[in-house]
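User: Here's a chain of 176 residues. Predict its fold as tokens.
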Amino acid sequence: MRIRLLEGLALLATGLLAGAFGYGAVNLVPTFHAVPLDMRLSFHAELMKMNGITMQAAMAVSTLSSLTLAALTRGRARLISGTAGLLALASFLITRLGNVPINGRIKEWALTSPPVDHAEILQRWEFFNDLRTLTALTAFALLIRLALRPIAVAVPGVSDPVSGGSSQSVRALSPP
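Assistant: Prediction complete.
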């Protein structure tokens, strides 16, 4: 039962993370392009104030729950949840090392004026945004795959294609 709850937490946190990044990539970024630069910079700076806590929390819970799930499972389930955890960690690192430094610059530009090469810098921010969105979505897809794995009937010799274990190990990981 603990494994299923942990799996649910990993799925929820990673789904929220992928959903937030996906919404940003599909809706916010095109809107940034449609409005005047000063409006984009002001909105972007304000948005990052709100996102700082919530997105980092989602990335942390997603990473930790997926990696804990990997530590507590075996076989293919371990590989899938571990990969999802590493992808969530990659989303965090891309954000901290790529997007956050640019966000700091955007915050300054909103108060002053953007430099001559601002278009290149904003394009780099969008590249990092697309990359972290892809890693979060892939982690979410992996956890969905894990959650949808068939629950094998406790019959000797039946194996679970996801966990790679026998029906006894699958039954131990499944709710009653």
